[in-house]
């Protein structure tokens, strides 16, 4: 049974109407047929089953036949502040962060970030990452898409960040701080988590100082140095295991 995350434009109250690229995928790639059922997450968080009642030249229409338990938000709402990575590494992090249940991802332009984009290029990248996240959300049957913000400077994210229980903000560092396991012993419940993840070349000392001054706690993942994309997904998976809904 296909899973969809439905937008406000696609939800008609008692039916769904899918057009555009998603219509092409359902009708042409998946070869959906009249009478088949879909499961869909609605914009208000409800999950429904809908029966395909019509497939035209440009739309798939499905009648809602049942409502399931609401999906709800995960117990730990995680935002990744990920320094921009080069090549397809960022695509990979976006896709896997969606599968692992992160709520939002903020791409950061740090002092050692390799990518450098114009404003127009940054918007194009953000749109591309959102498309990757949306596809991964449907594949992994999550009810809410991963929110991708436009790339921004690290400095612009720090003043807006306030640390208060049951929230935590963590800075992933190669050597400084305590382990996630030690931190979890002192913080058994975390409702909101911000994870700051560095670029391939690591954090600049000034960036570390600024984050620590804002109350962001440094943590490490153990004795081995991990690649940036490996560290990001390892930290997210561990955080979901310790405070979220993984495992």
Average pLDDT figure: 90
For the record, what is the CATH homologous superfamily label of the largest domain?
SPOUT methyltransferase, trefoil knot domain
The number of strands is 13
The CATH architecture name of the largest domain reads: 3-Layer(aba) Sandwich
Helix content: 25-40%
Whole-number radius of gyration? 20 Å
Strand content bin: 25-35%
Major sheet description: 8 strands, parallel
Rounded to the nearest angstrom, the distance between the terminal CA atoms is 24 Å
Task: Give me the secondary-structure category.
Answer: alpha/beta
Number of domains: 2
Highest-level CATH class of the largest domain:
Alpha Beta
If you consult CATH, what is the topology of the largest domain? Alpha/beta knot
Number of helix segments?
7
Helix and strand sequence: EEHEEEEHEHEEHEEHEHEH
Spans of at least 5 consecutive residues with low confidence: none
What sort of overall outline do the alpha carbons produce when their principal axes are compared? Answer: elongated
Q: Regarding quaternary structure, how should these chains be classified?
A: single chain
Supply database-style keywords.
five-stranded mixed beta sheet, Ribosomal Protein L25, Chain P, 247 residues, alpha/beta, 2 domains, single chain, eight-stranded parallel beta sheet, Alpha/beta knot, 7 helices
């Amino acid at each position: 049974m296909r899973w969809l995350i439905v937008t406000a434009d696609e939800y008609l109250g008692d039916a769904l109407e899918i057009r555009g690229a998603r219509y092409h995928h359902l009708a042409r790639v998946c070869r959906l047929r009249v009478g088949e059922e879909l499961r869909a997450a609605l914009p208000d968080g409800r999950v429904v089953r809908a029966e395909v009642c019509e497939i035209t030249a440009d739309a798939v229409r499905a009648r809602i036949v049942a409502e399931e338990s609401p999906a709800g938000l995960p117990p730990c709402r995680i935002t990744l502040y990920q320094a921009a990575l080069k090549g397809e590494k960022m695509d990979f992090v976006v896709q896997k962060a969606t599968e692992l249940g992160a709520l939002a991802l903020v791409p950061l332009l740090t002092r050692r970030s390799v990518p450098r984009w114009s404003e127009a290029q940054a918007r194009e990248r953000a749109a591309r990452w959102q498309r990757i996240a949306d596809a991964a959300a449907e594949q992994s049957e999550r009810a809410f898409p991963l929110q991708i913000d436009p790339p921004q400077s690290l400095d612009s994210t720090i003043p807006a960040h306030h640390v208060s229980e049951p929230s935590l903000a963590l800075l992933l560092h190669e050597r400084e701080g305590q382990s996630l396991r030690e931190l979890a012993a002192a913080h058994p419940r975390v409702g909101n988590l911000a994870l700051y993840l560095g670029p391939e070349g690591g954090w600049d000392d000034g960036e570390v100082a600024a984050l620590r001054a804002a109350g962001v706690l440094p943590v490490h993942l153990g004795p081995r140095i991990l690649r940036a994309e490996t560290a990001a997904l390892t930290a997210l998976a561990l955080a979901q295991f310790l405070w979220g809904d993984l495992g």
